[in-house]
Specification:
The chain contains ten helices and five strands, in the order H-H-H-E-H-E-H-E-H-H-H-H-H-E-E. The protein has 229 residues and is an alpha/beta fold. The termini are far apart. The chain has helices at residues 25-30, 33-48, 57-63, 84-87, 107-119, 134-140, 148-153, 156-161, 174-195, 197-204, and strands spanning 72-76, 95-99, 124-130, 209-215, 222-225. Strands 2-1-3-4-5 form a five-stranded mixed β-sheet, with helices on both faces. 41% of the residues lie in helices and 12% in strands. Bound molecules: zinc ion (ZN). The site of zinc ion (ZN) has 7 residues, from helix 6.
Length: 229
C-alpha cells in the first residue's frame, strides 16, 4: 500500500488523513474536465505498467458511506474483460459506472448521465468501447435473439458508417471490428448531445467534457479520442 499516492485522483500530501482516501466534494470540484481525463489516463498507465496503487477498499467504503462525489461517469460494455474501475485503477467513489452491451445509450442511460453530471457534479462523460466486442460483432453478423435484436440495431449505424478499412467487412477482420467499435463510441457521443439538451449545454459551457475511448483487451491500453478524430 502506497500511503501517499501523488498521481491519484484528488490525493495530495496536505489532506487530512481520513480525507486522503477518497474523492471529496472539494477535491472533485477543483478538477476541470481535462484534469479528470488526465487522471483516468494516469490510472490506465499504472494498470498497463503493472504498477497499480493497492487501494484500501474497506477504508474507502467507510469514507464514502456518508456521501459520494465521483469525477466522471463511464459508459462501458458489459464485457467481463473491460471493467472500468480496474483498467483505470480507481477507488470506490471515484466514478459512476454504467454498463450495457455495446455501450449504447437509451433514455435511461442518458438520464443516468444527467443525474451524474447535473445533480451530482461529475466532470466527464466517458463512452468507452473495446476491441473484439461481441455486441459489435453481433451487429455486424446481424444476430437476432429476443430483446438483443433491438439493442444490436442501435449499433448498426456505426457499422454502416465505417470507411477506409482494408479487407473484408466481416467479423474475421479485427481492424474492421475495432473501427466499428470506435465509430459506435463516436455515434453514441453524438446521440448523448442530441438527446440531452442538459448535457449539451453543460459541455458548451465547459462544465463537463464528453469524451470517447477504446479499450484494447490485448494490451490493456485505453486510447482516448474526441468526437472529431
Ligand atoms: Zn463489448
Amino acid at each position: 500500500m502506497n500511503d501517499k499516492p501523488t498521481t491519484a485522483i484528488g490525493c495530495s500530501d496536505d489532506d487530512p488523513e481520513r480525507e486522503q482516501h477518497v474523492l471529496t466534494r472539494k477535491k472533485r470540484d477543483e478538477l476541470s474536465p481535462r484534469d479528470m481525463i488526465r487522471l483516468l489516463q494516469e490510472g490506465n498507465r499504472r494498470f498497463v505498467d503493472g504498477k497499480p496503487i493497492d487501494w484500501d477498499y474497506r477504508h474507502e467504503q467507510a469514507d464514502t458511506s456518508g456521501g459520494q462525489y465521483p469525477g466522471a461517469i463511464v459508459l462501458g460494455c458489459i464485457d467481463s474483460r473491460a471493467p472500468a474501475e480496474i483498467v483505470f485503477n480507481l477507488r470506490i467513489g471515484d466514478v459512476f459506472n454504467a454498463r450495457v452491451a455495446g455501450n449504447v445509450v437509451d433514455e435511461d442511460i442518458v438520464g443516468s448521465m444527467e443525474y451524474a453530471c447535473k445533480a451530482a457534479g461529475a466532470k466527464i462523460i466517458l463512452v468507452m468501447g473495446h476491441t473484439n466486442c461481441g455486441a459489435v460483432k453481433g451487429a455486424i453478423d446481424r444476430v437476432e435473439l429476443g430483446n438483443l435484436t433491438q439493442l444490436l440495431a442501435k449499433i448498426k449505424p456505426a457499422i454502416d458508417a465505417v470507411r477506409d478499412v482494408e479487407g473484408e467487412q466481416t467479423t474475421k477482420n479485427s481492424a474492421f471490428v475495432s473501427a466499428a467499435a470506435k465509430m459506435n463510441v463516436m455515434l453514441t457521443m453524438a446521440n448523448i448531445r442530441k438527446t440531452s439538451p442538459v448535457l449539451k449545454e453543460m459541455e458548451e459551457r465547459g462544465e463537463i467534457g464528453i469524451a470517447g475511448a477504446l479499450y484494447d483487451i490485448e494490451s490493456g491500453k485505453v486510447e482516448f479520442f474526441d468526437s472529431k478524430s
